[in-house]
Amino acid sequence: MKRKLLLVAGFFTVQLAAQASSLPDYPFIFQTGTAQVEVSPDTAVMDITVASRGADAAKTLGVVNAGVAEVFQLLGKAKIAQADTQASEIMRTLDYSNREKRDAPPTYVINRNLRVWVRDLAAWSPLVSELAAMKNITRLDTDFRTSAYDTLVADLELKAARDAETKAARIAKSFNRKIASVMAISEVPFQSLERAMIRSSNEGFAPPPFIPPTEPASAVRAPASIALEKSVNVLFKLE
User: Half-sphere exposure of 131 toward its Cβ, with a 13 Å CA cutoff?
Assistant: First the structure.
């Protein structure tokens, strides 16, 4: 019995040592910095799916192709360049559910996906309104972007790093310590530190309450601005 207790104690000692070894062997502080900016979008990327289902594969594909042709007509009307349209993806699946007889043929489900770049946002609102009225469109998503994305994100990364440094220096000062140097920086959380820390930085966070608009708008409008955010995780060594 004594030997068993020693083995169990040894096992836990090894486990604790393994966990402890993942932490730095110097005084440190870990902090997350964030930065955000709102900019006006200048591009809309639309994902459109034209779909149909039926017992005859050829007829079902014909319905889908007719729908895609109608989409192309609307894109031409909106003066969308051919180079700004991707329409090469076709998916066909078989649906065996809802068959009255066991040996009955399956239902063919055919989808064709399109991705469209709208570089003139004034054309987006009338285009999406006409597409939404089409019968066989099952998905109509829009992602608003800015052509200055790379430059803005690079600036946000620097601001997020400074934000982490400011927070860390403020906390260190409350303990009469100073930051000596940066030991690690990453956009993804440090897993070893996450395991060692019990409390999450998002604990107790509650989203703001939903406030409905005072006047419902019938017209579809592009957003006036979009938010870009960047976060970095930084490990600082203390003096």
Answer: 30
